[in-house]
Amino acid sequence: MKTILTTLNASYIHSSLSIRYLKAYSKDISNIKLMEFTINQNIDYIVGELYKEKPDIIGFSTYIWNREEILKICEMIKIINPDIKIILGGPEVSFDGVQILVENSFIDFIIFGEGEITLRELLSSIINKKDDYENISGLIYRDGNSIVQNTPRPLIKELDIIPSPYEEVGNDFENKIVYFESSRGCPFNCQFCLSSTIKGVRYFSIDRVKEDLGKLIDAKVRQVKFVDRTFNANKKYAMEIMNFIMDKNPKDMNFHFEVTAHLLDDDMLEFIKHAKEGLFQFEIGVQSTNPKTIDAIGRTTDFQKLKEVTEEIKSFRNIHQHLDLIAGLPYEDYNSFKKSFNDVYEIQPEKIQLGFLKLLKGSGLRNGKEKYGFKFLDIPPYEILETDYITYGEMLRLKGIEDLVEKYYNEGYFKNILNYVIRNKYKTAFDFFEDYLNYWEMKNYHTVSHSRNRLYKILFNFCRYKGFSDLDTLNELIKYDYIYNNRHSNIPKYLERIDTNLLQRGKHDILKNEELLNLLLIHHRDKPTKKIINKIHIEGFKIDIFKLTENNYKMTDEIIKDTYILFEFKDGVIDRCRTYNITEFI
Question: 404: which of 59, 175, 183, 522 lies 20 to 30 Å off by Cα?
Answer without folding.
Answer: 175
